[in-house]
Design brief:
Blueprint: H1 2-50, H2 55-82, H3 101-108, H4 113-126, H5 133-144, H6 147-165
Helix pairs in contact: 1-2, 1-6, 2-4, 3-4
Length: 170
């Protein structure tokens, strides 16, 4: 009985530390997703400003990026709680989760919240690209080859990612 009284507090402490670590890691990844989506919004805005004819494809592209990142956010949350080995927190945050198309398809078959988000991303990847996809990618290449045009949002993104990377979860 005394042994149980000694072990129980340690077990509860371990569980609460793991929960705090999971929450910290989840928040860290969520900040990465937010920073990435902000970067893509800025890139699209710059692209459309240069060529307003790309507005429709820009919105299409951004919607796909949002679906992709929201799936990753939901998947990281899910895996941190249910299968932490799937989240490579010892790597750079951009590499924490690598879902291939087969895994996304499997997740999409589930009727839970993660399955619904996965289905949206899976369906995105099965549809035909926007008819101006090539023009948008060419515009991105042009903008990215002239760093002055993207200097402010790129520096902001890099600064934010650096701060996020410095977050230590225990």
């Amino acid at each position: 009985m005394k042994l149980v009284a000694l072990i129980l507090p340690f077990a509860l402490l371990t569980t609460s530390v793991q929960a705090a670590d999971t929450e910290c890691l989840s928040n860290k990844y969520s900040q990465y997703v937010d920073a990435s989506l902000t970067w893509y919004k800025e890139l699209i805005a710059i692209t459309i400003k240069k060529d307003p004819n790309l507005e429709s494809v820009g919105e299409w592209f951004l919607e796909g990026r949002q679906h992709h990142f929201e799936l990753n956010r939901a998947a990281v949350d899910f895996y941190l709680k249910n299968d932490p080995s799937k989240v490579k927190t010892n790597q750079s945050i951009e590499s924490w989760l690598q879902l291939d198309q087969k895994e996304i398809k499997t997740l999409a078959a589930n009727n839970d919240a993660l399955g619904k988000v996965a289905k949206i991303t899976f369906d995105d990847r099965q549809t035909q690209p926007h008819k101006q996809n090539y023009e948008l990618r060419s515009a991105f290449a042009d903008i990215l080859s002239h760093p002055k045009e993207i200097d402010a949002p790129l520096n902001a993104y890099n600064e934010t990612i650096s701060k996020i990377s410095d977050i230590t979860c225990k």
